[in-house]
Design goal:
CATH architecture: Up-down Bundle
Distance between the termini: 30 Å
Helix content: 40-55%
CATH superfamily: Peptidase C65 Otubain, subdomain 2
Strand content: 15-25%
Largest sheet: 6 strands, mixed
Number of helices: 10
Order of helices and strands: EHEHHHHHHHHHEEEE
Structural class: alpha+beta
Strand order of the largest sheet: 1-2-6-5-3-4
Number of strands: 6
CATH class: Mainly Alpha
Shape: globular
């Protein structure tokens, strides 16, 4: 991965492997996934990886891109319901709509890559996703308060979710998946087991986004085409 990039070009899956490894997990990973995009480890990697993968999966599907754009515009209702001041989210929401429109105008992955590697644009997308996650958590507080170890949900949202560079927790990932109605497949390298752990959020759905979780970091995975 180039030192200054936020999201890398696609690389062969073996670029993640330690030299001379024979670990079963890497073999397993190699059998299921062909390539990876590395995302900068700056505490925002989940959000950046998630949304890049989401847009990329819809890139050559005009209807899907239009659906994403309409969904993003409708999230202003989520912010209103959670009591957010419009000035706190409007700019970031507009940035995301702009990025989707650029994808609609030019369905090329290098356009998407360029936008995600512009620090201001990319960080604005992340900030939007963080605010949306917070809004969804607060709008469904009865459910989510059971999973949060903070004095209260609002404090948790302000300190752990809305603040940039804070690593995302499972509860945040679930909330964002629900807020945008996107199914996420997380492949985890953690743990001592010989096998990879697979988490589908929400369970029982067909994922469009595949992420690799390794040492508190997320990268984007591309499944091998199954014959």
């Amino acid at each position: 991965m180039e030192a200054d990039s936020l999201v890398s070009n696609r690389e062969d899956i073996s670029s993640l492997f330690p030299e001379q490894t024979t670990a079963p997990k890497y073999k397993d990973l190699n059998s299921k996934f062909s390539s990876v995009r590395q995302v900068r480890g700056d505490g925002n990697c989940f959000y950046r990886a998630f949304f890049f993968a989401h847009l990329e999966s819809a890139l050559h599907n005009a209807r899907a891109l239009q659906g994403i754009k309409e969904k993003i515009i409708r999230t202003s209702d989520d912010f209103t319901a959670a009591g957010f001041d419009e000035s706190s989210y409007r700019h970031h929401l507009n940035t995301v709509v702009y990025v989707v429109e650029q994808c609609q105008a030019d369905e090329q992955e290098n356009q998407l890559l360029r936008l995600f590697n512009e620090q201001m644009t990319s960080d604005s997308i992340v900030q939007y996703l963080r605010l949306l996650t917070s809004a969804h958590l607060q709008n469904h507080a009865d459910f989510f308060c059971n999973f949060v170890e903070a004095p209260n949900l609002q404090v948790y949202c302000q300190q752990e979710v809305e603040a940039m560079a804070m690593e995302s927790d499972h509860v945040d990932i679930l909330a964002l998946s629900q807020a945008l109605d996107i199914c996420i497949h997380i492949v985890s390298m953690e743990g001592d087991e010989q096998q990879l752990a697979h988490h589908i959020i929400p369970e029982g759905t067909e994922p469009s986004v595949h992420l690799l979780y390794q040492t508190s970091h997320y990268n984007i995975l591309y499944p091998r085409l199954q014959h």
